[in-house]
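pasting for the record
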Amino acid sequence: MRGMELRIKRVYDDPSPEDGFRVLVDRLWPRGLSKERAALDLWAKEVAPSTELRTAFHHDGLSWPDFEAAYRAELAGPTKPALDALRAELAPHPVVTLLHSVHDPEQNHAVLLKAALPS
């Protein structure tokens, strides 16, 4: 993953040639978005937070620090094989954009995933 530039972008934003290899990292398909408009190269739903964790954070009021700790634990535990497979898939691409549908640009799983990918 050396030399790769990892970016983050909302999947609802217009695709751009500067995005490079576009990877959706949400478990659920974004509402109201066609596959053509998404312009994905890969949908890596296996590395998204589990349904239980996503629901606890977005609907049940789980705090950001607790979500962050739980998601990092998922990435190091049950999701690790999928994370390793994603690293291998992304390795040949000089620019990769991780796409998500969350409104908050700072407190979302793509930020945590981006930090975990170079490892």
